Amino acid sequence: MRGKNPFFSKMMGLFVDMHKLVAGDFQRGLATLKALVEAS
Asked: What is the pLDDT of residue 25?
């Protein structure tokens, strides 16, 4: 990632599992994209 990383963001990065936070949305997005590609 680029840009400013304030103290709060650094602390959040230590204690929050970002993979768990975004993995569900990412998987749903990939499934939707796959369905769109297969339909066309």
From this structure: 93
